[in-house]
Amino acid sequence: MSPTVSVLVRNRDFRNLFLAELVVFGSDWFVMVPLLVLLPALTGSGVWGALVLAVDTGTLALLLPYTGTIADRFDRRKIMMAANLAALAGVLLLLGVRSAGTAWLALVAIAVVAVAKAFYSPAAQAALPNVLDPADLAAGNAVAGSAWGTMTVVGASLGGMLSAAAGPYASFWVAAGSLAVAAGLATLIRRPLQAPREPGAASPRTWAAIREALRYIAHRPRVLALVTVKSAVGLGNGVLTVFPLLAGVYGAGAIGTGLLFASRGAGALVGPILMRRVLSNRAWLLTGLALSMSLYGLAYVGASVVTWFPLVLVLVFLAHLGGGSNWVLSNYALQGEVPDRLRGRVFATDMMLATLAISVSQLVVALVVDSVSERTVLAGCGLVTVVYAIGWRLATRRLSLTEPASEPESTPSAGAAPESTPAS
């Protein structure tokens, strides 16, 4: 039995966490793909789709510094459950998007869902090492890194097909039910999702906790390199805005949009699995990160010049094979560098920078999407990622991840206890 399958079979708590994430990620795409097809049909413009994506990522970016401190202070299991139920409420708001005059409600609903994700994501990512034994960390990361890609394939393709067959509102109902299931799965996790804290220590105030995490990142070049690496793919993420428009160019409609997102997910699924060997050799990580983001950019440049839709799907797959590899490699490296008491905040900062980059890319595309061709958007986003990858590798060429991670200096908040005790 392979290590990636073995860890799922042996570890019930990791399996429940993984299944909960599968359901959460799948519901996200059951919402997003039908919505990105619905809004241009209602409004006659691609701007609304770009604004939805920008609200999603922008809200995440604004909240993550705060929600990371919450993930380090409170019971991560309860955070995940509450976030899933809040996202469910946001999805139900989408049932009111019925005309151009109610298109604004989509922005409100997606903002609610994004707030929920901002709380869920740092808690789930920071919890991962706590449900895995040290020997299983590499295999567990490969499995967890494939969750998003797996459900992008399922959620995007099925969401596109269900939307084409039964309309977008059926997809919204499926997403709402899935989020209720995810909240239930979190209740089945029995291991504590936080390391024990020193008894009697006061919890740091929010801004003090954020400053502590930022100082930790700024004074450690390896951590700083790792929390900036996802921005390369983020700056190229504006391509997602034109997926529905690109499918229209080829006459593929909602099913074509679903296939584009599914190809994206398939790449993100395969990338982490292929990278499992790299995860076991820290000497390869920085080079692997540079190559993975370069593959993303070059594949989208290629997609901008080909004229056969199946080949576009292949190139989208390759791009996100690189993007998925980039994500899991940087997450694994950060888990080895950052202590548990800071992990939620550092991962939140990591995600904040990535989502800020995504928001910038999507807002720029929103400004030009009605005046330039889809191929120009693909080429521009791909080139931005390639240039960033080259600059990042030059800046990190003297760093190595083979030496042991340094311990943070002791600070008054170093032993801060969570304000809620994790269930045993």
From TrEMBL:
Keywords: Cell membrane, Membrane, Transmembrane, Transmembrane helix, Transport. CDD domains: MFS_MefA_like. Residues 403-424 are annotated as: Disordered. Pfam families: MFS_1. The chain crosses the membrane at residues 18-41, 47-67, 79-97, 103-120, 141-164, 170-189, 223-243, 249-271, 283-302, 308-334, 346-369, 375-395. GO terms for molecular function: transmembrane transporter activity. It is a multi-pass membrane protein. One of its GO terms (cellular component) is plasma membrane. Its main location: membrane. This is Predicted arabinose efflux permease, MFS family. The lineage of its organism: Bacteria, Bacillati, Actinomycetota, Actinomycetes, Micromonosporales.
